[in-house]
């Protein structure tokens, strides 16, 4: 590892903004990795565009990180953008070690195939019958079949990509390399890039026109909806510029300082007189579970509706017994049932303002079953 004093850079221009950055780095005991770490010893150019060539993208770190974690950094060629990608390799331990350059990511999910459901029910029987909510919760988590799949994340070749696109990309790469090495041929590089972009745009447009032409001829309408779904924009993520304090204030104001659950809670004025004949029945539990919807987000305990839906009669009876203990006061209402996860849902307007979001509170499924049983009883009494 070199020091800041000997850091190299292929960009020899120092302007006022650069001086401000260097002073900040020095005053805060930080280090610029560009030209100062294995893999980028020469300080490669990070911007190569029509306005010139320079190093304007940096990786900055502190001394401890530099010594303990930094393995190497590399500026990677990118013909699709004027800015080059900076790859930083860290020397850290993780639960899963992926091979360098891996094109896959691992997705963990619950399995609910016919075989998975059979294994789930067998596991439930093996784990016995817990006498309280905490035991039942852990039993469900242990019985659910957790699976992993590897998803290929590499960029797939588009059907509009052909030999002409490939040749244009090679020519752009060749011209770009000469421009980087000599600092000359800027006009050639700009023209080549412009030509490459036009070829790509034309190929995409012609392919889309062909697809729509075929869709119009398809009497089933299948191809039409395939095209519609492909062109639908992905949902944008929640703005990271909104701080947790802002979220708290927004939702507290929205809910009058109280959390509003998906399932209605009993109000102070809504009380049910308890007696032995009114204990929760297995039929009540079964009816509520039957109406649970699949593929819904879980609450804080991560138990999904499917765990109850596919659990069978024995699980329903087990839950019934525990709910009656809570109903009769033999067991306290679990603390986790009093908690919910508020998920912000964007409505419209500026994404960086919390008031443009509404909240959905995700409650634990065990609580939702209990609350729905009580809600139904209240309706009958009215």
Keywords:
single chain, 382 residues, alpha+beta, Deoxyribonuclease I, Chain A, 3 domains, two-stranded antiparallel ribbon, two-stranded antiparallel sheet, elongated, Endo/exonu/phosph_ase_sf, coiled coil
Describe this structure in words.
This protein has 3 domains: 4-90, Endonuclease/exonuclease/phosphatase (Deoxyribonuclease I, Chain A, 4-Layer Sandwich), CATH 3.60.10.10; 183-231; 237-381, no CATH class. By secondary structure, the chain is α+β, with helices and mostly antiparallel strands. Helix 5 (163-182) runs antiparallel to helix 6 (186-217), helix 6 packs antiparallel against helix 7 (222-231) and helix 9 (282-290) packs across helix 12. The protein is built from 12 helices and 10 strands.
Task: Write the SSE topology.
Layout: H1 16-27, E1 30-32, E2 47-49, E3 52-54, E4 60-62, H2 63-68, E5 70-76, E6 85-90, E7 104-110, H3 114-126, H4 133-143, E8 146-152, H5 163-182, H6 186-217, H7 222-231, H8 244-254, H9 282-290, H10 305-309, H11 312-327, E9 340-346, E10 357-363, H12 365-381
Antiparallel strand pairs: 1-4, 2-3, 5-6, 7-8, 9-10
Helix pairs in contact: 3-4, 5-6, 6-7, 9-12
């Amino acid at each position: 590892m070199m020091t800041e004093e000997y850091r190299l850079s292929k960009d020899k221009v120092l302007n006022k903004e650069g001086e401000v950055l260097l002073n900040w780095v020095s005053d805060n005991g930080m280090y610029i990795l560009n030209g100062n770490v294995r893999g980028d010893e020469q300080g490669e150019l990070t911007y190569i565009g029509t306005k010139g060539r320079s190093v304007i993208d940096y990786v900055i770190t502190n001394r401890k990180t530099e010594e303990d974690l930094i393995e190497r950094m590399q500026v990677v060629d990118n013909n699709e953008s004027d800015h080059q990608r900076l790859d930083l390799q860290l020397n850290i331990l993780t639960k899963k070690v992926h091979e360098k350059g891996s094109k896959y990511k691992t997705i963990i999910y619950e399995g609910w195939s016919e075989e998975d459901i059979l294994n789930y029910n067998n596991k439930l029987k093996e784990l016995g019958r817990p006498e309280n909510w905490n035991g039942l919760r852990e039993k469900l988590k242990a019985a659910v079949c957790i699976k992993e799949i590897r998803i290929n994340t590499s960029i797939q070749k588009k059907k509009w990509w052909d030999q002409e696109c490939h040749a244009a990309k090679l020519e752009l790469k060749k011209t770009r390399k000469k421009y980087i090495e000599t600092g000359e041929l800027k006009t050639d590089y700009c023209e080549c890039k412009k030509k490459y972009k036009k070829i790509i745009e034309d190929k995409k447009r012609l392919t889309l026109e062909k697809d729509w032409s075929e869709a119009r001829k398809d009497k089933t309408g299948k191809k039409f909806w395939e095209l519609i779904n492909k062109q639908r924009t992905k949902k944008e993520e929640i703005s990271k510029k909104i701080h947790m304090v802002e979220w708290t204030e927004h939702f507290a104001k929205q809910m009058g300082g109280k959390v509003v659950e998906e399932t209605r809670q009993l109000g102070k004025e809504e009380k049910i007189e308890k007696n032995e004949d009114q204990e929760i029945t297995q039929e009540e539990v079964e009816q509520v579970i039957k109406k649970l919807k699949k593929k819904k987000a879980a609450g804080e305990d991560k138990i999904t509706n499917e765990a109850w839906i596919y659990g069978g009669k024995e699980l329903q009876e087990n839950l019934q017994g525990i709910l009656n203990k809570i109903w009769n006061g033999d067991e306290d209402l679990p603390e986790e049932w009093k908690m919910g996860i508020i998920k912000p849902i964007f409505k419209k307007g500026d994404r960086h303002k919390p008031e443009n979001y509404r909240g959905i509170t995700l409650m634990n499924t065990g609580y939702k079953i209990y609350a729905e049983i009580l809600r139904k009883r209240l309706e009958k009494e009215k």
